[in-house]
Amino acid sequence: MGGSSGILAPASPGSPPVHAVEPAVVARDLAAGYGTETVWAGATFEIGAGEMVGVLGPNGAGKSTLLRLLLGLLRPQRGTVQVLGRPPMRGNPDIGYVPQRRPTTDETSIRGVDLVRLGLDGHRWGTPLPGRRQRAAGRRVADAVAAVAAQPYAGRPVGQLSGGELQRLLLAQALVGEPTLLLLDEPLASLDLRHQAGMAALVSDLARELGLTVLLIAHDVNPLLPVIDRVLYIGRGGVAIGTPGEVITPEVLSRLYEAPVEVLEDSRGRLFVVGLEDEVSHPHGY
Fold it and tell me: What global pTM score does this model have?
């Protein structure tokens, strides 16, 4: 299946675990693109409340496009999508979002704690809140910083922080508004393997503790394998969803790319996709 083809995984693997509450995301024959260009199409899936889903695929496949749809920043070309029971809308306070991290310089002087506070009152930047609301906001910022264990460096300028420290503070910024859905665009990028595993475990722990639904974009599924429920794999205009064992297989990926694809597993259980050299330049193929 390629081009504008749709879901690859059969209905049963693509179905979310049984939840007593309404799904967080429901897509029906969904197509996304820009102008007249379709990036992917035919996506039908549900993300259950409380699920943690890894969004995988090569560069340019449309992973960030999916998040733009859910954030209400892009309209579907075809089909429908519901987010937390209603059509997507800009500025939804029930969604916490961490975009792809942009490089900072040593001269970036905003403190980490102020970066977190932007998640509460970024639209009011430069305008102080009244006293009582100011104190309440301060408590929420402190709680969010504590949730990601960033107290030791939250008072420092972000330009002096490591990539892992900054990523934790951006996560706190997304949490400070007390969302129910968390959208993370490559939060593991630029982190070493140890910190990738630590960040994935932190997100998983917070999701369980706070009852969050999480969609996390990544290039490499391996740091996510211990913590995710399912993967949503985007490639060549199609979408496949299921558990890692159901989707990251030679059969599913070969159909997705209309080319022979191998999936190798090493002695430590890490997965490696072989045969996507024309799709990506990085070794993991995600």
Answer: 0.85
CA-based nearest residue to 243, from 11, 47, 8, 14: 14
Q: What mean pLDDT do residues 115-140 have? A: 72
Residue 190 near residue 101 (C-beta atoms within 8 A): yes
How many whole angstroms separate alpha carbon 150 and alpha carbon 166? 9
274 and 261 Cβ atoms separated by less than 8 Å: yes
The CA-based dihedral angle spanning residues 177, 181, 186, 191, taken in that order and rounded to the nearest 10 degrees: 60
Is residue 258 within 8 Å of residue 236, measured between CB atoms?
yes
pLDDT tens digits for range 261-285: 899 999 988 999 887 655 543 333 3
Calculate the CA 213 to chain-centre distance.
Answer: 10
Q: Which domains are delineated in the chain?
A: 1-94+179-260 (3.40.50.300), 104-178 (no CATH)
DSSP state at residue 284? S
Chain centroid to Cα 110, Å, comes to 25
Helix-helix angle 112-121:163-175, to 10 degrees: 30
Q: What percentage of the chain reaches a pLDDT higher than 90?
A: 67
User: Is the separation of the CB atoms in 30 and 78 below 8 Å?
Assistant: yes
Q: What is the pLDDT of residues 212-230, one digit of tens each?
A: 999 999 989 999 999 999 9
**The token pair that represents 56 in the structure block:** 């995988």
Each residue's pLDDT tens digit, 70-91? 999 999 999 999 999 999 999 9
Q: Residue 113: in which H helix or E strand, if any? A: helix 112-121
Coil vs helix vs strand at 25: strand
Give one DSSP letter per residue of 166-218, joined into a string: HHHHHHHHHHTT--SEEEEESTTTT--HHHHHHHHHHHHHHHHHHT-EEEEE-
